[in-house]
Amino acid sequence: MFIIETVCVGWFSLEFLLRFVQAHSKLEFLRGPLNIIDAMAILPYYVSLIVDENPTSEHERPSGGKGYLDKLGLVLRILRALRILYVMRLARHSLGLQTLGLTVRRSMREFGLLLLFLCVAVTLFSPLVHLAESELTGVQDFSSIPASYWWAIISMTTVGYGDMVPRSIPGQVVALSSILSGILIMAFPATSIFHMFSRSYQELKQEHDRLFKEECAAAAAATTGPEDEQDRGWVAFPPPRLVLTPDTETPGSFEDLSLLGNGGETSGKNKHPLPAGAF
Q1: Residues in domain Ion transport (predicted)?
Q2: Is residue 129 situated within a structural domain?
Q3: CB-based contacts of 95: which residues, under 8 Å, 6+ apart?
Q4: Which domain holds residue 21?
Q5: Cβ-count burial of 174 within 10 angstroms (0-12 exposed, 13-18 middle, 19+ buried)?
Q6: Does residue 157 form part of some domain?
Q7: Total structural domains in the chain?
Q8: Is 58 part of any domain?
Q9: Predicted pLDDT of residue 69
């Protein structure tokens, strides 16, 4: 596992350094949230190597030094646990994770309202269940109102671990009311968040499709030379015009026109001149 981790961390470190070198603005690169996650996922490995290089013979020191080493070991274990942040790197290549992050960022108001409603309901039902169980029946499960907050939270979110259960009829009535109100409170902003998720997914999908089409067009334009474009071009010529000119050399041409003007009579003797607006 150490060898696999070393290879993976080396690959991620090389990628991080190359992206840092190629970035136009180094400060903006370091401020990016995904880049911060990458750094937090890579650094614990190097910190653990530096700390593990020190010998463990220092445990023979007095209790003060040993307590310092224990605290340092706790910090090191916490840093090692941060390696789970490698999973967040999938957000660079996953449309679903990008949509989830965009939805959370756009729905902060809805999440704030949900938290507010939940806090108000918890503040309401915790004293009621404490009163119904401890004061009326003497059950010691709900020892205090702050302890009842935990029960109200897990009941309203329909988790229900079962570590604290009301046993009296008034307590069960309060529990039923808290569960039903929790379902309604959780359902209020769910529709808005769902529509925001769908809208964000469509926007990101259209953006990815547009970038993909632009990349394909740029690749096609790079492979196509200017000569091919000239060969495939065409010149628009004007359409030919038909010009009617009277045939003065052919005898009878004017005579035929006069016959048409007389209503199609075939008699050549009755010749009348054509009006000026005939043509």
Answers
A1: 2-203
A2: no
A3: 201, 204, 205, 208
A4: 1-53+72-93
A5: buried
A6: no
A7: 1
A8: no
A9: 65
